[in-house]
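Q: Give me a backbone?
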Amino acid sequence: MNDPVQVTGSEPYRRFLRTFFDAPQRDGPDVRVLDEFTPAELEQAELQMLARLPDRHAMRGLTYLRSTRAVEPLRALMRGERRIGVHAAIALWDIRPDQEAFALLCRTVENRPRLWRRPERLDAAAALTHIDRREAIAALITALDDRDIAIRANAKQAVRERLRLNAEADAMRSGHMTLREFRALAQAALEECYPQ
C-alpha cells in the first residue's frame, strides 16, 4: 500500500474527504469522486467510510462501491435503532439483495404505528419502488390507503409504474375511480404480473 501521506494528498481524495465528511452537501456527497481513485485510495476511502458508519454519507459511498466489507456492519445497524436501521437496510439491499433487509423495508411501509417517523417510511417506500419483487409491490398496494399523504402518493406512483396502471391512476385522480377500485385493479394486476 502507498504511503498514507501520498494517498490522502491527491485532489480527488481531498474532495472526497471534504464532500463526504468535512462539509457534506445537503443532498449528499458526489460519489463519482470515488471513480477517480487509485486502488490504494479506494482501499483507504472504504476503510474510512466503514469507520464512519452509521453516517448516511458513508453508507451511500459504501453502496456505490458495492462494498462486501460493509455487509455485516450494515446488517448489525439494521437490527438497531429504527431510523438508522431503515437506511442500513436500503444500503444493504443496494449492495446485494438481502432477505432480512427486504423484510424490514416491507414492514416499515406496511406497519403504521402512530410514532413511526415519516422520513424513514418514505425512504423505505422509495426503496421498494426499485425492487422488482411481488412482496415489494404488495407492500406498496397496502400503502395506497396510508394516512400519510406522502406515503400514499409514493405508493400510488410506484404501483402505477410497476403494474402499468397509468390510465387507471389518471381516472382515480380525476374522480372517475375510487381508491378501492384502484386498489382492486392493482391487486388483480399484481396477480397477473407476479403469479404465485
User: Anything to note?
Assistant: Residues 179-193 form the longest helix (15 residues). DSSP finds twelve helices and no strands in the chain. The radius of gyration is 20 Å. Residues 80 and 128 are 20 Å apart (CA to CA).
